[in-house]
Specification:
Strand content: 5-15%
Structural class: alpha/beta
Largest sheet: 8 strands, mixed
CATH class: Alpha Beta
Low-confidence stretches: 1-8
Number of domains: 1
Mean pLDDT: 93
Strand order of the largest sheet: 6-5-4-3-2-1-7-8
C-alpha cells in the first residue's frame, strides 16, 4: 500500500471526486435510507453552528478532507465572521464549532471566540495541536483557557509512527508537547476545561470500538507521557479529497466504498451531524456538513444558501443534500464530529 504521505494533491476538482465515487457502483444513499424507512433526511433542531474559517494550516496532512495547508489563501473575512455571530445572536444555537485548516491562524478566530462567549455560547476549537507550538501562538493556550473554550484535538494515533504517517515527521512529538501544555493549563483534569481527542484510522478501514480505542489512548498517553484527557472520538476517513486520492492511487476506492455500504447501520442515521449542524464556509456559503462543504455541495431543496440569505429568511429548517460519501458517516458505529453514533 502506498504511503499516505505521498498524497499531496487531491483530485482536480470536486466534480471529479463525485464522478469517481459514482463509478464505484455504490447504491444511492437516498435509496438506501428510503428502503429503511428513513427518508427524507431532514434537520432536527440546530444545535451547532460549525464555521470553517478557511484552509490555511501549518500542516499538510495526508488524510485531510479540507485539502488544507500552508499555501492556501482562502480565509474568512471579518465581515463574514460578524454575519456568523449575528446568526448566533438571532437564533438560540447553543454551540459555535470553529474549524479550518488551523482555525487559530485566521485573524478572525479570536474575535469569533470572544463574541460567541459574550453571547453565552459554548465554543469548540478544532485544533491540530501543533499550532499551539508556533511562536506567534505562544499565548493561545492561555487565551483558550481564560474563555473556557473546549479543545477538540486531532491525534490520529497514540503511537508516533501512526501519527507521523498521516501528519508528517515530528508531528507526534510536537502534539505530545502541546497536550502537556493544555494539561498544565487545566485542560482534561476535571476543571471544566474540556479536552477531547480525535482518532481516525491510518488506512482504508473503519475505526474500531470507540470505547476500546479510548481505553488504549488513556493508558498509552498516561503511562508514556503523563497526559490526560476527557473523551476520545473516532471518525471514519471520508472518501473525499486527499483520502480519496490515496484510495485511487492504491486501487482501494471500490473496496473501501463496498466496506462502507456493506457496513451501513440504519441506527446511525438519526444521529448524523447534518441533522443538528449547519456548516458555514469561509466565504459565507452554507452547507449541510463540513464534508458537503469540501465537495462544493451547498444546501439545496430551496433552503437559504448563504449567510446573507439565511439572515434575511430566518428559516433554519432544511432537507439534507446527500451523496455516496454519506455512507462514511453511517457505516459501522457511525461517524460524526462528536465521534461514534451507535
Amino acid at each position: 500500500m502506498p504511503s499516505l504521505l505521498a498524497i499531496r494533491h487531491p483530485l482536480a476538482d470536486t466534480g471529479s471526486q463525485l464522478r469517481v465515487l459514482a463509478k464505484t457502483g455504490a447504491p444511492s444513499f437516498d435509496d438506501v435510507i428510503a428502503a429503511n424507512g428513513l427518508a427524507p433526511l431532514a434537520t432536527a433542531r440546530i444545535e451547532v453552528l460549525q464555521v470553517n474559517v478557511g484552509k490555511l494550516c501549518n500542516q499538510t496532512c495526508a488524510h485531510c478532507h479540507v485539502d488544507a495547508g500552508p499555501d492556501r489563501r482562502e480565509l474568512m473575512t471579518a465581515e463574514t465572521a460578524l454575519k456568523a455571530i449575528e446568526l448566533l445572536r438571532r437564533h438560540a444555537i447553543p454551540t459555535l464549532d470553529i474549524t479550518g485548516g488551523a482555525p487559530e491562524l485566521n485573524p478572525q478566530f479570536r474575535m469569533l471566540v470572544d463574541e460567541a462567549v459574550k453571547l453565552g455560547r459554548r465554543v469548540i476549537d478544532r485544533c491540530n495541536l501543533t499550532v499551539l507550538m508556533l511562536p506567534a501562538q505562544a499565548d493561545l493556550v492561555d487565551f483558550l483557557a481564560e474563555r473556557r473554550v473546549e479543545v477538540t484535538a486531532s491525534l490520529p494515533s497514540f503511537r508516533q509512527a501512526g501519527t507521523d504517517a498521516q501528519r508528517g515527521d515530528g508531528v507526534f512529538a510536537k502534539s505530545i508537547e502541546a497536550l502537556k501544555r493544555l494539561n498544565a493549563a487545566g485542560y482534561g483534569r476535571g476543571t471544566g476545561l474540556v479536552l477531547e481527542l480525535v482518532h481516525n484510522p491510518v488506512g482504508a478501514f473503519l475505526p474500531g470500538s470507540q470505547a476500546s480505542i479510548e481505553r488504549d489512548y488513556r493508558r498509552a498517553l498516561s503511562e508514556a507521557h503523563g497526559i490526560v484527557f476527557d473523551r476520545l472520538h473516532t471518525i471514519a476517513n471520508m472518501p473525499i479529497s486527499r483520502f480519496l486520492e490515496f484510495l485511487e492511487r492504491s486501487g482501494n476506492t471500490e473496496r473501501y466504498m463496498d466496506v462502507l455500504v456493506r457496513a451501513f447501520n440504519p441506527r446511525t442515521v438519526s444521529g448524523v451531524m447534518c441533522r443538528t449542524h449547519l456548516s458555514v464556509g469561509w466565504d459565507g456559503a452554507l452547507y449541510d456538513c463540513d464534508f458537503n462543504q469540501m465537495l462544493a455541495l451547498p444546501v439545496d431543496h430551496g433552503a437559504p444558501a448563504t449567510l446573507d440569505a439565511l439572515l434575511a429568511s430566518g428559516d433554519l429548517a432544511r432537507t439534507v443534500r446527500t451523496g455516496h460519501h454519506c455512507f462514511g458517516c453511517t457505516a459501522g458505529a457511525g461517524s460524526s464530529c462528536g465521534g461514534a453514533l451507535d
